[in-house]
Specification:
- The protein is α/β, with parallel strands linked by helices and 338 residues long.
- The chain has helices spanning 13-24, 75-87, 110-113, 131-147, 165-179, 211-223, 257-265, 284-287, 318-335, and strands spanning 3-8, 29-36, 44-47, 51-54, 56-57, 68-71, 91-94, 125-127, 149-158, 229-236, 243-251, 270-272, 293-300, 307-314.
- The longest helix has 18 residues, at 318-335.
- The N and C termini lie close together (8 Å).
- 47% of the residues are buried.
Length: 338
């Protein structure tokens, strides 16, 4: 069977990546519709190596007869249009944060909790988690199954592409401006991002967390296990694409770094590159355009019983967003829409 698929937010970074991945993975489409706001209407986007699609206005589109809609347009747009699509009989896979903590809507990382997709029938909507949460949970799931995780302390090193094209442009212009002695003031970020790091992603909450940090905490509990305690510090770094995370884990039971390494090597969606010599690890620039979550620097935490440290890297536009959404769609058609 083939499916009519709509990509909402097709003019953005993640929307374009979704179209690319649908083509790469030969998703069984009968028709693909590219949707965005009226200001993008009539522009074209690529679908695969040879095809182009003309963007249609989301505001005017009738979702009747569309099987799956992959949304990545921004939370307020999803809040308005995802229920309209769902009501028309279309299954929505939403990449924004709007529906993630709704108890009637499954929040899914296929390698972690694919079974939760079954609950899509409650609202006809499935939520895609936050990019930093996705890569961390792909790494944590097999270890949790083996030794039961009590607590996670994570510090993220998140690329500017997570804030969109304007953020990428700002990094480029500021970097160029420094070399040309033409200082470019911050606009997208609160401080200069070029040659700097900013410990602030999304808005601050009353408890001192940023919203990005709260997402990692709450989404981990919803997806993996509500009993896991999470402490997160999310940092924006001057990298165009690819998120990295330093993850410290405390287990209920003993798990050696050798045992963890072997477990992770046999787990879906993971590549372990962990050599204890110069360059024996993966950095963000090496994960760009790759689909896997890469794990390096596995070692015991000598300061606590049953502790382990690791370094986790992934392409935030692919596994952290577009690929995860397409994988959900693949599970959906394999097990639920046939």
């Amino acid at each position: 069977m083939s499916y009519k698929v709509a990509v909402v937010g097709a003019s953005g970074n993640v929307g374009r990546e979704i179209l690319s991945i649908l083509a790469e993975r030969e998703f069984p489409v009968s028709e693909v519709v590219a949707l965005a706001s009226k200001r993008s209407e009539g522009k074209t986007v690529s679908f695969g190596e040879h095809d182009t699609l003309t963007i249609q206005a989301l505001e005017d589109f009738d979702f009747t007869g569309t099987h799956i809609a992959l949304f990545s347009p921004g939370g307020s747009v999803s809040a308005q249009y995802a229920p309209i699509a769902a009501e028309a009989g279309c299954v929505v896979i939403d990449n924004t944060s709007h529906f993630r903590m709704d108890e009637d809507i499954p929040l899914v990382v296929p390698e972690v909790n694919a079974h939760a997709i079954a609950d899509y029938t409650k609202r006809n909507i499935i939520a895609n988690p936050n990019c930093s949460t996705i890569q961390m949970l792909v790494a944590l799931k097999p270890l949790h199954d083996a030794a039961v995780i009590k607590r996670v302390v994570v510090s993220t090193y998140q690329s500017v592409s997570g804030s969109g094209k304007d953020a990428m442009d700002e990094l480029y212009k500021q970097t160029k401006g420094i070399f040309e002695t033409n200082k470019i003031p911050p606009h997208k970020f609160t401080k200069q991002i070029a040659f700097n790091v900013i410990p602030h992603i999304d808005v601050f909450l009353d408890n001192g967390l940023t919203k990005e940090e709260a997402k990692m905490i709450n989404e981990t509990k919803k997806i993996l296990d509500p009993s896991i305690e999470v402490c997160a510090t999310c940092v924006r770094v001057p990298v165009f694409t690819g998120h990295a995370e330093s993850v410290n884990i405390e287990f209920e039971n003993n798990l050696s770094d050798d045992e963890a390494r072997e477990i992770l090597r046999s787990s879906p969606g993971i590549v372990v590159v962990d050599e204890r010599n110069d360059g024996g690890y993966v950095t963000p620039i090496e994960c760009v355009r790759e689909d896997h979550v890469f794990i390096s620097r596995l070692r015991q935490d000598l300061s606590v019983a049953n502790g382990l440290n690791m370094w986790v890297v992934s392409d935030n536009l692919r596994k952290g967003a577009a690929l995860n959404a397409v994988q959900i769609a693949e599970e959906l058609i394999e097990n639920y829409l046939n």
